Amino acid sequence: MTVAKRIIIKGLVQGVGFRPSIYRMAISHRLFGTVENNNTGVIINVEGAINSIENFISELPTGTPLASKISSINIDEIDYIGYTDFSITKSTSQSNEVTEISPDIATCDECLQDIKKQKNRINYAFTNCTNCGPRFTIIKDLPYDRPKTTMDVFPMCEQCNNEYVNILDRRFHAQPVACNNCGPQYTLHQNNSQTSEISEIINKTSELIYNNKLLAIKGLGGFHLACNAFSEESIQLLRKAKSRDGKPFALMFKDIDSIEKYMNVSKVEHNLLTSWRKPIVLLKQKELISNSISIGLDRVGVMLPYMPFHHMLFEKLSIPAIVLTSGNISDEPIIISNDEALSSLHRICDAVVTYNRDIYNRTDDSVTKVIGNRARLIRRSRSYAPSPIELNINTEGIFAGGAELVNCFCIGKGNQAIMSQHIGDLKNLETLEFYEESIERYFKMFRFKPEMAVMDMHPDYLSSRFVESLNIPSTKVQHHHAHIASCMVENQLDEDVIGISFDGTGLGDDGNVWGGEFFVCNLAEYSRINHFEYIPQPGGDAVSKHPWRMMVSYLLQYFGEDIFKNEAILFKDIDNQELSTLLSIIKSNINCPLTSSSGRLFDSIAALLGICLNATYHAEAPMQLESVANYNIDEKYSYMITDIISFKTTFAEIIKDLNSNIGISDIAGKFHNTIVDIIINIAVNTRNETGIKKVVLSGGSFQNSILLEKAEKLLSESGFEYFTQTEIPSNDGGIALGQLAIAAKRRELNII
Ligand code: ZN
Ligand code: FE
């Protein structure tokens, strides 16, 4: 029997070779009809034998491209027309309900072969196909078609066009398709000379890197700075050039085998490294490459080549790894324009490699870490953004401004949340401009009309100010409630939970700085059931740069001034004058907001153990504390739980251990166990009181693998269901998603 059906597929289905794959499947099942992209998704009209249509539909989830993701399939009976073939019809834009933009995809193996074999693509560094290549970074508008990308200035040559229109070709409808005859080209700028001959560029680039020179190389989402990973000298040069004292640099390795030589790689890490997204993965080092790549940390950020240029470079290079870090000075956004690179990066580099295709949407390399055998996003950007997150709640028209330090924003479309790529620290002027520009672009690209906005309670966050400037109805959300909500919606939770949020900072509704918080909450509201004891935070936010000052504040609070005389050995590395100034600042309560921050507690312990007295980058002290900690130790310190959680006995016991010459590795391990014990303790008490069995963990402190793995293990052993973040960062990069979910829920309940 012959029937006709309309199949509407939503999800990540545009720009990933979806329609051609549908075409080929339809042909193989002898079906007639059409497939079309419009901005509601992919629409398939099929006619044929009922069995064939059923087989075709059942093949959809597995037969479609690797980088696509189907979120829904709707099937309707339609009238039989009598098609005589199967065809792909041109993109139409019929409504304002826009579907997704594909993130960028790392170069596929077949394209790497083409670079060696295919006549018009020998050594062609922009080779791509429907299965790989740039997407989000070059897209200016939807629907995704070449004229709406930065490829619009490169008319296809006849050969490329033949591939583009040939349904059986791997480049059929690949929008960025290009070859040596028609596509973009690289240029190497060195001193005052330039060359655009690719073999020469590759030769010179590899030679310069090998000889310890610094280079700027244009990547997919922005410029990188590159140097020899095995040369202490060039890494020092790079640190100086970037004004970056201690922050770790990422490495790119030639291939997975060389990574495994230097790093410990688990199966999950292996899969993550080699996935089509090619993110940076934070791996534990087996063999030290250089002392100054990630100072004081046991892990190094590592990735594999994801552009043809990277592969071509490693073929020439005789070293298996290079430093590849974002091309910016200090904390500014990564540079994307050739002009800017040639003016500002050329000053600090020996050569600059550009190409003549514009990067439209800036993306940094994404950063991931495997904790508890699951991949966790630390920085969500290239090859992840702007993939949507599916929610069980209507988010249409809601804009969430995000946090401030590690900003991402978020827009609501239907039942989806579209998170921006990592934006950065808004206090930096250029980053704020990037924020505002990206918001404008997302509104346009996704046909988004903001009806309602949501912001952090902190009135001085630049994101809060931006939200207010929109002049539309808005709602305020407490920072740690947003963290928990972010984790809840990622895990499709919409009920009362025990929410535990540990991080560096966030304004509480009593005006204090929160960050070691225990809630009973749902998506709409929360009540704070316990928290870390308030301690004065001398100097306000600036104290996060000086862990020793927070340590002094803890010790003064718990033991009075005598400790600074009686335990003088603990303070041997602290300047006496600075110490007494600090003590008088705390005692006279000048600019000393109270804080319950977990980040500041970890800072203080790191300082007390002499691991990190002053931090040169965000969260350095807690990361170093995690790195030195003995994972295998079982002991813990005591603490006191009343209405608050006091660490007085914890500090006393740590000092005792220090005086008994217990190693800092063991002390750090015992301290981690103490925090895990507190989590379990409060969770059990709360379950006894409320009957709630679901525990949600979020906040930047849960990027600590010891803390998260041990908490997960013990929560599960204590009969809890626990929920943690994977796809969305548990740091402030995930805040906007939580804000969006809370606003959507409040709107649904009419409590705004
Ligand atoms: Zn390809
Ligand atoms: Fe936070």
Q: How would you explain this protein's 3D organization?
A:
The chain is α+β, with helices and mostly antiparallel strands. The chain has four domains: about 1-90, 2-Layer Sandwich (Alpha-Beta Plaits), CATH 3.30.70; about 100-185, DHBP synthase (Alpha-Beta Complex), CATH 3.90.870.30; about 185-355, DHBP synthase (Alpha-Beta Complex), CATH 3.90.870.40; about 535-725, 2-Layer Sandwich (Nucleotidyltransferase, domain 5), CATH 3.30.420.40. It is about 35% helix and about 20% strand. It is built from 22 helices and 32 strands. Helix 14 crosses helix 16 and helix 20 (about 665-690) crosses helix 21. Zinc ion binds near residues 108, 110 and 129.
Question: Nutshell version of this structure?
Answer:
The chain has 752 residues and is an alpha+beta fold. The protein contains 22 helices and 32 strands.
Taken as a percent bin, the fraction of beta residues is 15-25%
Mean pLDDT: 95
Assign the CATH topology of the largest domain.
Nucleotidyltransferase, domain 5
Shape: globular
Q: Describe the main β-sheet briefly.
A: 12 strands, mixed
Supply the number of structural domains.
Answer: 4
Please give the CATH class of the largest domain. Answer: Alpha Beta
Number of helices: 22
Look at the structure and name the CATH superfamily of the largest domain.
ATPase, nucleotide binding domain
**What helical percentage do the residues reach?**
25-40%
CATH architecture designation of the largest domain: 2-Layer Sandwich
Measured between the Cα atoms of the first and last residue, the distance is: 54 Å
Structural class: alpha+beta
Could you tell me the number of beta strands?
Answer: 32
Radius of gyration: 27 Å
Question: What compounds are bound to the protein?
Answer: zinc ion, fe (iii) ion
Low-confidence spans: pLDDT under 50, at least 5 residues?
Answer: none
